[in-house]
Amino acid sequence: MSDRLAQLSAAGVAIWLDDLSRDRLSTGGLDKLRRECHVVGVTTNPTIFAKALSAADEYADQIKDLAAWGVGVEEATRMLTTYDVRWACDVMRPAYDASRGVDGRVSIEVDPRLARDTERTEAEARALWWLVDRPNLFIKIPATLEGLPAITATLAAGISVNVTLIFSLQRYEQVMDAFLTGMEQARANGHDLSKIGSVASFFVSRFDSEIDKRLDKIGRPEAQALQGKAAIANARLAYQRYEKVFGTDRWQALADAGAHPQRPLWASTSTKNPEYRDVMYVEELIAPGVVNTMPEPTIHAFADHGEVRGDTITPFYADAQKVIDDLARLGVDYDDVVATLEREGVQKFAASWNELLEGVTKSLDAAKSGVDKPGKAATGCAKTEAQQ
Known about the structure:
By secondary structure, the chain is an alpha/beta fold. It has a single domain (3-205, 235-314, 346-365), classed as Aldolase class I (TIM Barrel, Alpha-Beta Barrel), CATH 3.20.20. 55% of the residues lie in helices and 11% in strands. It contains 18 helices and 8 strands. An 8-stranded parallel β-barrel has the order 1-2-3-4-5-6-7-8, surrounded by 10 helices. It is globular.
């Protein structure tokens, strides 16, 4: 099953898993994905943690201890999630060492309720860095306007960053500038730039979902013809900007000092529309030096029927720009689309964080009353029944 994934990896795409759970760790499922499915990184978010803690009982003993200790829900939540991420970092350490620090990374997100608070985002980024205490950690910081200076400050402190929730090309340019500024400051602060990593996470399928909804309202044939094309076009134009920025003298000075480029990462790459090919956000976004973070079913789907057709990004810049221009001619407001997606993205992750806190609260209360939490989810490299 690994042949197509091996081809994808050889084409320059780092395959990361967009999921994590205590069950996946304790059963060896994550390590199996690393060994057999070419998975070289892991991303998490509040939604993933909320699902993991609600569906498995591997947390029961730790929650029981936290309850007996009298730990508050916020601290308990961070202890539970950082424990998983620390463990995942250890599982992925061989990929980190083999790639000399480029891959083998595991991401944990700052509290999404802080997305508009620069100072507190910086503080939590530093706290998460020393809580997990692993060199192959990424701290996820949202690419809000308030997040940009936090990205710079975190990198300047020698801390690796996964910039998340990027939708717009203009914001992506600001993210790359924040990265370069942070690395310049890190160099001035005496940090070893070769130890600092970063990716910029462009959300893909959500872009199509929002624009397809607007195209449906327009209803004309030319609008229907553009459905399912906007997200890939947007990502391709992002890669064009990546090539430009990381071809400058400014970047070369950092590269000469040992820095690795901030790679584009394609996030939200499972298709939301069942009419679309289930691996299209993988097949159509292949180019050297990118990351594609996928849920496990998408990894299995690509292993089964994905196609690697070489570079599917750089030859299509003109086509991508035409899609964006055609959308504008139809009255689809790009700026409004990306603003809506950022606002909703922050809100959704904040809601998931609150859901996570509620789940931990219930688990702590149950532990105090001596009630065990039932339920266990099956995961691993082998397909579950739900994935058959």
